[in-house]
């Protein structure tokens, strides 16, 4: 089961960086999201594949026609309004953020939003209450668990890197975590973001063959070698943000040629959820 998901963000939606920390700064940036998204949509049309797009509410309000274009053939899901990390907010702030994100997308498309991904996979052991928030809002699926350590959170020690059910304080939600591979005693991800851009396509294809579950996460900026360089980023973050951009679109093309991908909703219907692990977060 290979699931294709895309986080609908512009090139300047970089987490935890002072130059673009405020929403007011985004209006001063050159937007490239329509051009980059259209390129991906054209490729998916050519391959006859559909994806789930986790959409920022800010993007939806600014580019409503783009949201409608995506929704015409693809699946939409929530990714917050303004891309704030969950663990830097209070519970009620997160709930209101997701509620507004849902309402914005539902008003534009007439379709119920049932899935969510936290910005930066910022669902951590300290924010288990996110399960309660999602359940209260009527969400069915979450894609926020990154079962390894990462810069913006991650859920190290999470016991599953495949579809499962998670329970916290009596609330339950169906989880699609990132898939991981074990190498030299450490878990790493190969199917999205900078990891996909960094690793050779031959290695990615080999890992794909070995995996019976793959959750991708791409961004339009991952395939835009002409995007502006944010000079104020540290050397490490420049590497993470810009490595492999020149070849990434051709890598995506090859990946879609050699493997079939489906959107989240189709994957959910193909799973017998009663046979998936039930994880009580009180123990993790």
Describe this structure in words.
The structure is a single chain. This protein is α/β, with parallel strands linked by helices and 284 residues long. 37% of the residues lie in helices and 14% in strands. It has eleven helices and twelve strands. The chain has a five-stranded mixed beta sheet with strand order 5-6-8-7-12. Strands 2-3-4 form a three-stranded parallel beta sheet. Strand 5, helix 6 (130-136) and strand 6 form a beta-alpha-beta unit. It is globular, with a radius of gyration of 18 Å. The mean pLDDT is 93.
Short précis:
With 284 residues, this protein is an alpha/beta fold. It is built from 11 helices and 12 strands. A 5-stranded mixed β-sheet has the order 5-6-8-7-12. Strands 2-3-4 form a 3-stranded parallel β-sheet.
Task: Break the fold down into its secondary structure elements and pairings.
Elements lengths: L1 E2 L1 E4 L14 H4 L6 H15 L4 E4 L1 H6 L1 H10 L1 E4 L12 H19 L5 E2 L13 H7 L4 E2 L21 E5 L2 E5 L5 E3 L2 E3 L4 H6 L2 H10 L3 E2 L19 H8 L2 H14 L5 H6 L8 E3 L4
Parallel strand pairs: 1-11, 2-3, 3-4, 5-6, 6-8, 7-12
Antiparallel strand pairs: 7-8, 9-10
- How many alpha or pi helices? 11
Helix fraction by DSSP (H/I, runs of at least 4): 25-40%
User: What separation lies between the terminal Cα atoms?
Assistant: 26 Å
- Low-pLDDT parts are none
Query: Radius of gyration over alpha carbons?
Result: 18 Å
Dominant shape: globular
Give the topology string: H per helix, E per strand: EEHHEHHEHEHEEEEEHHEHHHE
| SS class | alpha/beta
Mean pLDDT: 93
What's the β-strand tally? 12
Biggest sheet record: 5 strands, mixed
As laid out across the biggest beta sheet, the strand order is 5-6-8-7-12
């Amino acid at each position: 089961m290979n699931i294709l998901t895309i986080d609908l963000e512009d090139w300047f939606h970089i987490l935890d960086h002072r130059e673009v920390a405020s929403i007011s700064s985004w209006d001063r940036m050159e937007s490239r999201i329509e051009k980059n998204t259209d390129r991906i949509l054209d490729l998916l049309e050519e391959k006859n594949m559909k994806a789930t797009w986790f959409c920022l509410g800010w993007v939806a309000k600014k580019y409503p026609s783009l949201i409608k274009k995506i929704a015409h053939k693809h699946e939409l899901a929530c990714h917050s309004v303004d891309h704030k990390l969950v663990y830097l907010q209070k519970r009620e702030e997160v709930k209101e953020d997701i509620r507004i994100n849902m309402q914005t997308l539902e008003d534009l498309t007439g379709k119920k939003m049932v899935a969510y991904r936290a910005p930066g996979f910022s669902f951590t052991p300290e924010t288990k209450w996110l399960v309660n928030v999602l359940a209260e809002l009527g969400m069915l699926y979450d894609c926020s668990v990154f079962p390894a350590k990462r810069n913006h959170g991650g859920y190290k020690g999470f016991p599953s890197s495949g579809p499962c059910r998670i329970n916290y304080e009596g609330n339950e939600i169906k989880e699609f975590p990132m898939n991981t591979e074990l190498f030299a005693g450490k878990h790493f991800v190969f199917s999205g973001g900078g990891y996909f851009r960094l690793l050779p396509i031959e290695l990615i294809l080999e890992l794909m063959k070995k995996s019976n579950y793959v959750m991708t996460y791409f961004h339009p900026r991952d395939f835009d070698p002409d995007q502006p360089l944010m000079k104020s980023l540290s050397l490490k973050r420049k590497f993470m943000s810009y490595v492999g951009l020149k070849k990434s679109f051709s890598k995506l093309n090859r990946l879609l040629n050699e493997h079939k991908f489906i959107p989240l909703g189709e994957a959910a219907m193909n799973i017998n959820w009663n046979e998936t692990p039930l994880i009580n977060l009180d123990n993790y």
